[in-house]
Amino acid sequence: MSDNCIFCKIVAGAIPSRKVYEDEDILAFHDVNPWAPVHFLMVPKRHIPSMAQVGPEHAALLGRMLTLAPQLALQEGCRPYPEGGFRIVTNTGAEGGQEVHHLHVHVMGGPRPWARG
Ligand code: 5GP
Ligand code: ZN
Prior knowledge:
Blueprint: H1 6-12, E1 19-22, E2 26-30, E3 38-44, H2 59-75, E4 86-89, E5 105-109
Antiparallel strand pairs: 1-2, 2-3, 3-5, 4-5
The chain binds guanosine-5'-monophosphate and zinc ion.
């Protein structure tokens, strides 16, 4: 847990969230300010600031997050590929548009138009 990290507080349950999925290592919850009809975030429970800090020791965790995303997207209402689908985004650093510095994957989908993106 990193001090003053909003996503660590969500993982710890100190800030409420609408949960999509949880296991030992990963939490997924709805974005509080959705860009799309389906918009949830997937985070590792352990604090990693961004993709800039990942190394070989994170390969299995990141692989699990990415392979889980399509399953959760369908579960949350994205239509199947190819008519439906989803967008996966990980903003990294200031110029990458990252606002919360706890690694997270945005999963967005649902009928267009979207609010953004
Ligand atoms: P970033 O710009 O860092 O890639 O995205 C951060 C995302 O976290 C934004 O889409 C924002 O709406 C979402 N967010 C920020 N604070 C909270 C919060 O307290 N709860 C939830 N559920 N989402 C949050
Ligand atoms: Zn954190």
